[in-house]
Design brief:
This protein is of the alpha/beta class. Helices cover about 35% and strands about 25% of the residues. Helix 5 links the parallel strand 6 and strand 7. The structure holds adenosine-5'-triphosphate. The site of adenosine-5'-triphosphate (ATP) has 12 residues, from helix 1.
């Protein structure tokens, strides 16, 4: 993971025929993290999708080095499978060993729930399950969309600890949130400063 990188240069985003933001630059190397902030609808999720290569940027460049894991509003876990098996499905695709799933369950305090079908998990437990999927992936670059939503204080602490461990081992974290998070963010990008309307106002 030590050669992981995420670099954005002058990125602009057009969505639904509307310019959302422009001029966003970011340079994260191994161990680097950033928090994207701004009100609902400003384009935080869109920027994460651009970083993930799921949405083209209107202008600018995105460079990624290292595997990528995205946690957004989609749980991406089989609702009918027990949690451990649902995570195991991704672990096989990600070609990580079974120990990665156990470690991720432990990190998110999900061991006691590991044999329950995913559909039986509560909102906060599902969010922890999604974070466990990211942790188990072994990906260097974590893109986390509103990772604190639905989490109680204890779970926010687990999230903060997981992020800190990931950064210590050379990972990169880009999180988007409209609320403050217990993350060691080196860089903060307030998308309001890049909003297309702000420029013309
Ligand atoms: N598939 C789409 N097609 C067209 N417009 C879209 C699409 N998805 C989102 N948008 C629009 O893009 C804008 C930015 O949405 P986005 O989800 O990136 O904002 P956000 O800052 O993450 O918001 P929130 O804090 O509510 O999650 C919104 O105005 C939204 O309606």
């Amino acid at each position: 993971m030590r050669d992981a990188a995420l670099r954005l240069s002058d990125v602009a985003c057009l969505r639904g025929g509307r310019m959302l933001f422009r001029g966003v630059s970011l340079d994260l190397a191994a161990g680097g993290s950033a928090l994207l902030t701004g009100p609902n609808g400003i384009g935080k999720s869109s920027l994460l999708r651009i970083c993930a290569g799921l949405l083209p940027a209107l202008a600018g460049t995105v460079e990624r080095r290292g595997g990528l894991a995205l946690a957004d509003e989609r749980l991406a876990l089989d609702m009918e499978r027990p949690l451990r098996k649902a995570l195991g499905f991704w672990a096989r695709l990600d070609e990580v060993d079974g120990g990665a799933v156990e470690g991720a369950l432990e990190a998110m305090a999900l061991r006691p729930l590991a044999d329950l079908p995913v559909r039986m998990l509560s909102t906060g437990q599902r969010k922890r399950a999604m974070l466990a999927r990211v942790i188990a992936s072994g990906a260097a670059v974590w893109l986390l969309d509103e990772p604190g939503n639905g989490l109680d204080d204890a779970s926010l602490g687990l999230l903060g600890a997981a992020v800190a461990r990931h950064l210590e081992t050379g990972g990169i974290v880009l999180a988007a949130s409209h609320q403050s998070l217990p993350l060691a963010d080196d860089v903060r990008i307030d998308l309001r400063a890049h909003a297309a309307e702000a420029e013309s106002a």
